[in-house]
């Protein structure tokens, strides 16, 4: 895991990043700015239990792509889940908390994941471990109103105008961040220009 000092504000942004793209970077940039983060951990996962990973490129390739996409020194590309043999987000967050006491973490995710968040293993535990920032994605703006997670934890929603307070709050606490949105998706890239990434 990247090194952090006590009191630092860190965003945790995980995904298979197959491949990483401008939409991912935009989510990271919005989170860093709006939450006033000292670091954002770009966590490249070994796989995704909810997706077909039979054609997933090697982890090393996805790490390299992610590093090339993130010149901001506050973004720390890491794949510590593979070392610890962690598959599920709830276990990842528990691991991070165990190794990093007295640090302020926020789980970052795109709004496109919010609608199906309740299908994630131990999704309630995730919401009870660290605050969550949901960043707007095309076609997913209304997910924060209709998703099971949003309804279940409606009482813990923080107004977007107070987003900078999120890293200092105990879980459950979450907010929805509006902002610029990129229409790019990993699926579209794989279907159209995957060979460009393989040559990179």
TrEMBL record:
GO biological process: NAD+ biosynthetic process
Protein name per Swiss-Prot or TrEMBL: Probable nicotinate-nucleotide adenylyltransferase
Gene behind this protein: nadD
Family, similarity comment: Belongs to the NadD family.
GO molecular function: ATP binding; nicotinate-nucleotide adenylyltransferase activity
Keywords assigned by UniProt, alphabetized: ATP-binding, NAD, Nucleotide-binding, Nucleotidyltransferase, Pyridine nucleotide biosynthesis, Transferase
EC assignment: 2.7.7.18
Purpose of the protein: Catalyzes the reversible adenylation of nicotinate mononucleotide (NaMN) to nicotinic acid adenine dinucleotide (NaAD).
Highest taxon above the source species: Bacteria
Pfam annotation, one family: CTP_transf_like
Catalytic activity: nicotinate beta-D-ribonucleotide + ATP + H(+) = deamido-NAD(+) + diphosphate
Class of the enzyme per the UniProt entry, highest EC level: transferase
Domain spans labelled Cytidyltransferase-like: 12-191
Known pathway: Cofactor biosynthesis; NAD(+) biosynthesis; deamido-NAD(+) from nicotinate D-ribonucleotide: step 1/1
């Amino acid at each position: 895991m990247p090194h952090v000092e006590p009191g630092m504000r860190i965003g945790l942004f995980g995904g298979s990043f197959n491949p990483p793209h401008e939409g991912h970077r935009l989510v990271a940039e919005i989170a860093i700015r709006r939450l006033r983060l000292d670091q954002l951990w770009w966590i490249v996962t070994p796989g995704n239990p909810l997706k077909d990973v039979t054609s997933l490129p090697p982890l090393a390739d996805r790490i390299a792509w992610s590093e090339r996409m993130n010149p901001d020194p506050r973004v720390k590309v890491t794949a510590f889940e593979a070392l610890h043999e962690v598959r599920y987000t709830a276990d990842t967050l528990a691991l991070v908390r165990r190794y990093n006491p007295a640090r302020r973490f926020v789980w970052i995710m795109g709004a496109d994941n919010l609608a199906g968040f309740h299908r994630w293993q131990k999704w309630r535990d995730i919401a009870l471990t660290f605050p969550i920032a949901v960043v707007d994605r095309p076609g997913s703006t209304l997910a924060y109103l209709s998703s099971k997670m949003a309804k279940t934890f409606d009482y813990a929603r923080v107004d977007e105008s107070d987003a900078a307070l999120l890293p200092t709050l105990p879980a459950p606490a979450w907010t929805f961040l509006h902002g610029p949105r990129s229409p790019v998706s990993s699926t579209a890239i794989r279907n159209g220009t995957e060979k460009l990434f393989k040559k990179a």
